[in-house]
């Protein structure tokens, strides 16, 4: 008589799927090991040839190279490199200060005061997260650039001094508007997890709202502010689209654009000093990631709770400043997100956006006709949709299983998975792209099968953004009581059975949310693919960048509008689907 037969005879009422096969122990551990190895290879693997390439005297595709540090010497001897470093550090500092200050202020206003419209503002402030970054840059340039529509109106009609968007402060303002939601969400989460008892006590003692915010709320938010500041600073170091689009008029390069131009314009293709520069940036962002993780651990010391439950609060009365501040927040959202989007739509429908003629006299369908008829543009849309759909689905499946292994298994290397899953988002996209370029060239197979098609781009984009799936899935998994696992194991279920029949079904809303987020992110991202895209493998982001550099802004605006429409539809459908799953 088999073990299964004995188990069913002993517990006749137990479901058949809970009966563990005697073969399940070995395969479960082996499968967990394979998943662990796959994740580690995908994340860490591309960085190994990158480091190797930086230590050779010749590119990896040339024979006869020797190990040397000449690539680093060449890099350090280039004055353009140090100029790019200076520009990048200044830009990152300005962006961080502006984004953190704005995000913190808006989080306090929307979560701790009686600001009118605060619930609507809390949603609209997140718009830059889902708007395609290149589309937002083009929209800003069309309106606020040196020859922009609104810039001209301010100069000609109001006779006021105008700003210079093609400068480091100008680009920092735009980058801060894009990064502000990061600080806003971080501080909002910190406020939602704390009780307002101390703030109420301060007000009861006669403190005014500004005094309460300065002496109580801001100290509570200090770890969240530092956490978001480190993250925004690290993200600002890797910005590529801004200097490529806004930098040329002032001859401004940042670190990422310096590497990009050195790779594409050098007499020797793929020079080793570019890999050396990528390694240096990788070290910097890795250190920043370690600092951020340390800050996340410290954040727990500043949590304030009470018996009334976290998040309950009596809004502070802004008094006579209530409506002026409400109008200010609304004006900020309008200027930074709504008007650029409207400008982008207008730009896609006119021959040229100029003050010399009214826009309605320049209306045309040529830009949209080019999107519909240009083979390259149509292929870019199709490829991006395929990558977002297939890549999003495969990534969510892989990361869901990896998350279960990391937090709900007995696999002996499980504790190493969480840091590996968090790391890719900290790696600058352009660096990851160079790493995958060398990996596909050196490791064949499978490099030869994916190097010249969209599947190689799908892997690079998915690895770059798999962290987003993890940060959506893990909190939901952490809320599932471990008693489910122990009860199922006591009844004889194996790990795969528990994962398939208990944990994954409970995680369906989180899995769907992770897929929607991955779809939108894969559709909008482009940095890891700038060195991988070839004719026939175009995606929307890189194609927009290339067309804009050729001086064809109209079709770029139309393509950005298409991208925004797809994102809006996916978010709407995804929200309805998630709501239905939660109430099913």
List key phrases describing it:
584 residues; mainly alpha; MetI-like fold; 2 domains; 27 helices; disordered N terminus
In CATH, the homologous superfamily of the largest domain goes by the name MetI-like
Low-confidence parts lasting 5 or more residues at pLDDT below 50?
1-12, 14-25, 302-311
CATH architecture of the largest domain: Orthogonal Bundle
Distance between the termini: 41 Å
**What value does the Rg take, in angstroms?**
26 Å
Q: What is the N-to-C order of secondary-structure elements (H for helix, E for strand)?
A: HHHHHHHHHHHHHHHHHHHHHHHHHHH
Q: Write down the CATH topology of the largest domain.
A: MetI-like fold
Number of self-contained structural domains: 2
How would you describe this structure to a colleague?
- It contains 27 helices and no strands.
- The protein is mainly alpha-helical.
- The chain folds into two domains: about 30-50 and about 365-584, MetI-like (MetI-like fold), CATH 1.10.3720; about 80-255 and about 315-360, MetI-like (MetI-like fold), CATH 1.10.3720.10.
- Helix 18 (about 375-405) runs parallel beside helix 22 (about 455-480).
- The longest helix is centred in the first third of the chain and has 34 residues, at about 80-110.
- The relative contact order is 0.13.
- Residues about 1-10, about 15-25 and about 300-310 have low confidence and may be disordered.
